[in-house]
Design brief:
With 366 residues, the chain is α/β, with parallel strands linked by helices. It is 40% helix and 10% strand. The chain has 14 helices and 7 strands. The protein has a 7-stranded mixed sheet.
C-alpha cells in the first residue's frame, strides 16, 4: 500500500521519527536498528527498544561510517531472534540480500525499512559541513541537487546508479516529491493496517525523477570506470594499489567479506625472519609488508560478483587507494558475463555456487 505520513512545519525528520516510534508502539517490531545521533554529533547504528529514544534517530543524515547490512545479519542470523526493523540505505539493502544468499543473514522476522539516498559524506566531512550549515540544510541541499555533482560527496555515491529503494517492506520515497506536506511511503498491507494508515494514489513523479537521477549517476560512473580501465591497462593493478600497507581496513568494513577464519589473519603469512632475508638476497630487495597484491587479488576473486558498490573500502583506506573503483570497474565486467546483479533479489542464485547441468552447453561445450 502507498500512503502519506504528514509533515509539520517542513520538518521531515520529525515525521520519520514518528513513523519509527509507531512501529514500536504498534508492536510491528520488537526493536529497531536505526542510525542514531550521539552527543558528539556523530551518527551510529543502535538497536532501540524504547520509543522515546527515537527522538535522536536520524535516517536522513548524509553520512556513512559503515554499511549496516552486516549488523542486520548479526541480529537476524540465529534463532531465537526478535522481530527487528532495520533502517537501511539502498546499498545496505542490496548488501543484505547478498548476505542472505551467503547464509550470513536471514529475512525471517526482519522488517526492512528502505530510505532513498541522496548521497553521503565521509564522517570528518559530514561533521565539518554539519557544524557550518546544520544537519537539515545539509541533507536538503543533497536532495535538491540530485542530478548535479556535489563537492566532497563520497566517490561511491557520486557514481551510484541505484540510489533509490527497489525492494523493502517499508519504503520512504524521498525522490520526486515535495516533502513539505508529507512523505510518501509504500509498505506491506498488514503493516499499514497495524498503523491505521489510509492509502493514497500512486504518483508517477517518483519514477520520472529516479530515471533522471540514475541517468546522471550512470554518466559519472561510466566516465570513472573508463578512466580506471585505462589506468589498469596502462599501469597494471599492482601499480594502482602499490601504496597498500595491508592494514585490512577494506576487508574489515566490507559488508560482503564475511569469512569467519580469514587466511590473511592467520599465521600463514607470518614468515620466519630468515625467510624475508633469503627473499631479499634472491631479488636484491623485497617489499614489505609482503603479499599485498595476493591480498587484493584474493579479495577481488571472492567479492567481485557480490560487490554492491557501497564504497566503504575506499572511505576507510589510509593510503587513499581507489579500491572501490577497482572492484566496481572489474566487477561490472564479471557481473555482466554472468548476467548477475548483486542485491537485486534473494531469488537470484549466486553463479559461482550454483551448478546447472546445461551450463557448459550454453558456451558451446558438449
Amino acid at each position: 500500500m502507498r500512503t502519506l505520513i504528514p509533515v509539520e512545519n517542513g520538518d521531515a525528520l520529525t515525521a520519520i521519527r514518528g513513523l519509527l516510534r509507531q512501529l514500536l508502539e504498534a508492536d510491528v517490531v520488537d526493536a529497531l536498528l536505526a542510525p542514531m545521533e550521539t552527543p558528539a554529533g556523530t551518527i551510529t547504528p543502535a538497536l532501540v527498544v524504547d520509543p522515546a529514544l527515537l527522538d535522536t534517530a536520524n535516517p536522513l543524515a548524509p553520512v556513512m561510517g559503515l554499511n549496516a547490512a552486516r549488523l542486520a545479519g548479526r541480529v537476524s542470523i540465529r534463532e531465537p531472534r526478535g522481530r527487528i526493523g532495520v533502517v537501511l540505505r539502498p546499498c545496505e539493502l542490496r548488501a543484505l540480500v547478498e548476505l542472505v544468499k551467503l547464509q550470513q543473514a536471514s529475512l525471517e522476522n526482519l522488517v526492512t525499512i528502505g530510505v532513498d539516498c541522496g548521497g553521503t559524506y565521509d564522517v570528518p566531512v559530514y561533521l565539518k559541513k554539519r557544524s557550518e550549515i546544520g544537519d537539515q540544510r545539509l541533507w536538503r541541499e543533497l536532495y535538491d541537487n540530485l542530478q548535479s555533482p556535489v563537492p566532497d560527496l563520497r566517490d561511491a555515491c557520486q557514481m551510484c546508479e541505484k540510489p533509490h529503494v527497489e525492494a523493502a517492506d517499508i519504503t520512504l520515497e524521498l525522490f520526486g516529491t515535495d516533502l513539505s506536506p508529507g512523505i510518501p511511503i509504500t509498505l506491506r498491507d498488514e503493516i499499514a493496517s497495524k498503523l491505521s494508515l489510509n492509502p493514497v494514489e500512486e504518483d508517477k513523479q517518483r519514477a520520472q525523477a529516479i530515471e533522471r537521477i540514475v541517468a546522471a549517476r550512470v554518466q559519472v560512473r561510466d566516465a570513472r570506470f573508463a578512466e580506471m580501465q585505462k589506468q589498469l591497462e596502462e599501469e597494471g593493478i599492482e601499480s594502482v594499489l602499490a601504496a597498500c600497507v595491508r592494514c585490512h581496513n577494506c576487508m574489515t568494513v566490507c559488508p560482503i567479506c564475511y569469512c569467519k577464519t580469514c587466511l590473511f589473519k592467520s599465521p600463514s603469512f607470518d614468515h620466519e625472519p630468515m625467510q624475508y632475508l633469503n627473499w631479499a638476497r634472491r631479488k636484491g630487495a623485497y617489499r614489505l609488508p609482503a603479499d599485498t597484491m595476493l591480498f587484493h587479488l584474493t579479495r577481488l576473486n571472492h567479492m567481485v560478483l557480490s560487490c554492491v558498490g557501497c564504497g566503504m573500502c575506499t572511505s576507510n583506506c589510509p593510503a587513499d587507494l581507489p579500491v572501490g573503483r577497482v572492484f566496481r570497474a572489474i566487477g561490472q565486467q564479471v557481473q555482466a558475463a554472468f548476467d548477475y546483479v548483486p542485491g537485486r533479489s534473494v531469488d537470484d542464485p549466486l553463479p559461482l555456487v550454483t551448478f546447472r547441468e546445461d551450463e557448459w552447453a550454453e558456451i558451446g561445450e558438449e
